[in-house]
Amino acid sequence: MTRKPIDSAALEKVVGGAYLPGTDGHDTTIGTNEADSIVLGAGNDYAEGRGGNDYIDAGAGHDEVYGDAGDDAIFAGAGNDFAAGGAGNDYIEGNDGDDVILGEAGTDALTGGAGNDIVVGGDGADNLQGDAGDDTLIGGFSDRAADSAFGGEGNDTFSWSPGGGNDYFDGGNGRDALTISGMTMAQLQQGLQVYTPGLQLLENSAGGVSFVNSQGQPQSFSGQLTIGGETLRFDNVERLQVG
């Protein structure tokens, strides 16, 4: 997402290492290089923490929040929000709504909350939580860091590719999938180990594999996939898709 240009006439608050309450309108708030506390009300708000270890509570509404440099804590609140942590070890909660959450550089802890969220860790060993909803989780395609992702309730997807690191994905409840780019079906079958016993492999022409139990019913499974010295471990997955 491209940041919006800042209109000085619309800029309501500029803070520096201080507590700032917002309003129930559509606020535009820019922090400084100090540790700012930005607490906004209802409304479709825009906030930048800039430098420093910032605390940002965006409140209800469809908000756009950037933590920027520093170890930031961001609470997006209810609504369809966009939140990006920037450089630093950030903590971000999306809450209710269909959110897009980017951890970016650093060791981040990211939670989508209820809703169909997109949660992307970026560079660093990140922890990703989808929670309720049909979520898309991405640890980081080329960071080679060990990410952990948990889908929670809903039909979730975790995207991975060689170079993404020794990641772990637990799909949780629902019909969850692993989407793997940069890998052929032959490589998938060569590197795949399935821990769940008594299953029959199914392969389709679209480049996916799944398993059924002895009654022919779709079955989630656990296992690991190894390629090029990296291992992706997983639990509670119903389908693997390559491409």
UniProtKB/TrEMBL annotation:
Keywords: Secreted
One GO CC term, this protein: extracellular region
Protein name as it appears in the record: Calcium-binding protein
Annotated localization: Secreted
Domain of life: Bacteria
Pfam families associated with the record: HemolysinCabind (PF00353)
Residue runs in coiled coils: none
UniProt-recorded Gene Ontology molecular function terms: calcium ion binding
